[in-house]
């Protein structure tokens, strides 16, 4: 009986992890889209130019920041 409850809790943990990962990827996609929509003055305020912003905004959603992989 203990293995059944352990298995059930493990499955629940994995589904929460999948939901969390999906939400994080959606947020990353929205952030990149917002970056693409910034004008030159806003980009200057955050210290990047239009080329850098475009490069970041066009990265695929699975190309996540390095600190996410640690």
From TrEMBL:
<dbReference type="Pfam" id="PF06568">
    <property type="entry name" value="YjiS-like"/>
</dbReference>
<dbReference type="InterPro" id="IPR009506">
    <property type="entry name" value="YjiS-like"/>
</dbReference>
<protein>
    <submittedName>
        <fullName>Uncharacterized conserved protein YjiS, DUF1127 family</fullName>
    </submittedName>
</protein>
<feature type="domain" description="YjiS-like">
    <location>
        <begin position="29"/>
        <end position="50"/>
    </location>
</feature>
């Amino acid at each position: 009986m203990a293995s059944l409850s352990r298995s059930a809790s493990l499955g629940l943990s994995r589904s929460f992890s999948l939901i969390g990962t999906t939400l994080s990827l959606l947020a990353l996609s929205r952030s990149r889209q917002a970056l693409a929509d910034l004008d030159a003055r806003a980009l200057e305020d955050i210290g990047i130019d239009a080329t850098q912003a475009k490069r970041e905004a066009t990265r695929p959603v699975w190309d996540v920041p390095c600190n996410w992989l640690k």
